[in-house]
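cache lookup: miss for this entity combination. No prior model stored, computing from scratch. Input as submitted by user K.M.:
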Amino acid sequence: MTHIRQQIRESLATVISGLTTTGENVYQSRVYPYDILPCLSVYTKEETAEYDSLSFPRSSRRELLLTIEIRAKESTDVDDKIDQISAEVEAAVSADITLGGISKDIQYQGIDIQLEGGTNQPTALGIMNYNIIYRVLETDAEQPA
Amino acid sequence: MPTIPASDLQEMFSLTELADVALIESVSVLGVFDNEYLDGLDVIGTSPVFTCAASDLYDIVPAVGRGTVATINSVNFTIENIKNDGTGVTTLSLSEV
């Protein structure tokens, strides 16, 4: 088994694979520049935890900040492309907010859009933020509790 | 800022040196085309610019402006920005159509 965080990241990447606009151009935790566009990339960079039971082993409620980054490059209307892709992502992610039972809830937190005009075509980045709630026992971060 | 003599500009933007031909409004303009690597927002790209003598550009193609199409090496670009440096040299920032 793997950490629930990894399971969530991989599950989300599967959920957003094959969308109409971005197809199979989906990455996880990519650290290199992108050349195949438009594309999506999934990151899990932050998480908070709090105990919600007293007796050992305690139950740990986690809030995972998962980001889905959308990148597109178009000669015109690159902002429209980001909006189109984000609509497809929102529909796909909300189809099953338990990810098959590993999460308690998935809450869309919003998007930050950046535009860049210094390159050979206008480029856009949309960073979609999701809060993903899951629970584990402190002794086992690989099984949902 | 002193203006560069016309003879020097002619030599700078000569086909026997580093110049390319940009077809702008069906008119050929000599200048240096540079398209170096540049990534923006972590997306791989280039930064196409065309540098030429201001007099060549405005005398030959007086209607040139933002949005004008320039064809360089068979690739169509839109002129996004025009920078005159005050010495007689103009740099066109381009984006691929």
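stored under new cache key. Chain A touches chain B through 18 residues (CB under 8 Å).
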